[in-house]
Amino acid sequence: MDLDALRFGNFSQLGEAITDWEQMAKKLATLKSDAKDNLGGKAAKARWAGENATITRSFVDKTAAEFADAHTQARTVARILGDTRDELVTFRDELTEVISQGIQQQADAYAIYIGADSDVKNDTNLRDWPQDIENSYFGTGSQQNDYRGRPAYKD
To answer: Which are the contacts of 64, defined by CB distance < 8 A and separation ≥ 6?
Structure first.
């Protein structure tokens, strides 16, 4: 992932994927329960005899186990996506804060200068400097690497 993808990333689609996987996990939990209780329970109570009974019970047990596995996998995918999204949002917030601090520090450094009388001066009337510095690094006005006007996504 490059800097811009992280800095200006909209992770809402990842949030939608998490919701979808969580809903799938709930549906699979219902199917898992139905497979275990209904199919498995009925197969265990059935009065089947012979080779067909053995094969059928084995098939029902394996099918119920497959629903349990699918449920576990769906929950795992939802958790992995959730953790990834949370980490990306945290990294984006930290990156934004570090960039803001760096821009402010650079603006503060430019506010201090040596005047014509050789005295050190501090010009506190430079309110636009942080924005000018940010624009010089991240927005050229040529629409190439110009990020002004991009929305700040809140996930």
So the answer is: 32, 35, 36, 39, 40
**Domain boundary assignment for the chain:** 3-138
- The predicted structure's pLDDT at residue 139: 55
Exposure class string for 117-130: b at 16+ Cβ within 10 A, else e: eeeeeeeeeeeebb
List, for residues 50-85, the tens digit of each pLDDT value: 887 788 888 888 888 999 999 999 999 999 999 999
Query: Where does residue 154 rank: exposed (0-12), middle (13-18), buried (19+ CB within 10 A)?
Result: exposed
Residue among 66, 62, 58, 56 at smallest CA distance from 31? 66
| pLDDT (0 to 100) of residue 114 | 64
Number of continuous H segments (helices) and E segments (strands) in the chain: 5, 2
In percent, the amount of the chain with pLDDT more than 70 equals 71
Report the alpha-carbon distance of residue 78 to residue 23 in Å, rounded.
9
Tokens of 149: 């006007």
